[in-house]
Amino acid sequence: MPQEQRTYMCIDMKSFYASVECAERCLNPFETCLVVADETRGENALCLAISPKMKALGIKNRCRLSEIPKDVKYIIAPPRMQLYIDYAADIYAIYLNYFSPDDIHVYSIDESFLDVTHYLGAYHMTPKLLAKTLMNEIADKLQIPSTAGIGTNLYLAKVALDITAKHTKDHMGYLDENLYRQTLWDHKPLSDFWQVSTGTVNRLAQFGISTMRGITLAPEQLMYKTFGKNAELLIDHAWGRESCEMKDIKNYRAKTHSVSFSQILPRDYSYEEARIVMQEMVLHGSHELMKRKVITPKIWIGVGYTYSATIPTSKGSTRLISATAVNSLLQEAALPLYDKLADRHTPIRRLAIAFEDVVDEGCEGYDLFTDWASVEREKARERAVMEIAEKYGKNALLRGTSYLDAATQRERNEMIGGHRAGYDDAGRTR
Questions:
Q1: Which region, left, alpha or beta, applies to residue 11 given φ > 0 means left and ψ of -120 to 50 means alpha?
Q2: Mean pLDDT, the chain, as a whole number?
């Protein structure tokens, strides 16, 4: 029995953060020069987003404030991550008015895949008409412009969004396998295509391959020798094929698990100052493990140095006697590892920690030398702290170390994704 022809959409909000800030100011993002950036970080602050108007002027999206031409007058909007999350939730609510959650995959805060196969007949719409209906509703209700890609598989929908839609007046692109081969087989650069990294492009260039057509003509033996098992995906995508469907995304469960955190410090830190931050990161990790009801038998730490340093990042791992999520036991393992790895004479600028090979907390056990009663009391105490933080805010109850000058946790508790949440005094964003 032949496989059912499917229709997917990939809808992306144009310059999402900048468009939200324009919407909040009742401004048209296509007529307004606006950047989202934390100007308190100085002229080298990174722009998280720029409005479509600034892109039309040839300004690059992820530029720094210092790179914007001096003759361009623009608004600087400080990041408000919670506000953008709220808008994303409103967009998702619009999708739910049309589709089942089983047919929606949120790919990022501003981009979603939709399996519309069984809805076209129900709504008596063509794929483009349905996409336009969604785009218009988002624009009417939230004043956020969007772009859509439509394809006969997930890959083609994404490529139609990323490449084809950019060259259409209605901001929509459509691809099936035949149209993909007719219009994009010779498209350059290869890095425009979804999941083709710069490293892949450079390795292909060594063999004189610079297009998708070139990949289809290359000997498969060469491709597998060069890219290993990833060659299968690369070859399939070169032909416009994609075996993964929405049901596969919904049913996916990761085989390996880890919980990791990293941060770039606000300035160069001494060994002692960075150690305070590492203590905070271990505690944060402990709470995250407890929240997920998992434990870890292994800790990995990375220490990166000042940008002018010539020494490489220090990194290493250690195994615990018993898998745990208890802060005191994690500190006993992590801090000696930090002491061993960190160069005491070179300023530190980056810290990372990973709790690896996590398993369900039901697998927890203690060795003969662990005071299990004390451990259980600590777990109960930390759970109480977590409940208070959940109810009254993350900064409602903090350890004394978080009030030291070098500590970063208080400020990071007010951030989302490393950027300011943007709450007002009442805890609202809008």
A1: beta
A2: 89
- The angle at the Cα of 312, spanning 309 to 318, to the nearest 5 degrees, equals 130
pLDDT tens figures, 266-324? 899 999 999 999 999 999 999 999 998 899 999 999 999 998 888 999 999 999 988 99
Instruction: Check: CB of residue 278 under 8 Å from CB of residue 409.
Output: no
* Fold held by 258-420: Dna Ligase; domain 1 (3.30.1490)
Q: Which CATH number fits domain 185-249: 1.10.150.20, 3.40.50.300, 1.10.357.10, 2.40.128.30?
A: 1.10.150.20
CA distance 319 to 155: 40
- For 104-115, b/e burial (b = at least 16 CB within 10 A) is bbeeebbbbbbb
Residue 46 banded pLDDT, cuts 50, 70, 90:
confident
Residues of the chain with CATH 1.10.150.20: 185-249
Fold of 16-80: MutS, DNA mismatch repair protein, domain I (3.40.1170)
CB 175 within 8 A of CB 165: no
Quote the CA–CA distance of 318 and 335 in Å, as a whole number: 11
Q: Which amino acid is at 139?
A: A
What is the pTM for the complete model shown?
A: 0.72
pLDDT in tens, 378-422: 888 888 888 887 777 777 666 777 777 777 777 766 655 555 566
Single-letter amino acid, residue 255: K
The DSSP line for 274-314 is: HHHHHHHHHHHHHHHHHHHTEEEEEEEEEEEE-TT--SPPE
d(CA 422, CA 137): 26
From residue 351, alpha-carbon distances to 166, 181, 264 in Å are 39, 45, 7
Mean pLDDT for the stretch of residues 121-138: 97
| The pLDDT of residue 391 | 77
- Cβ neighbors of 293 (< 8 A, separation 6 or more) are 360, 361
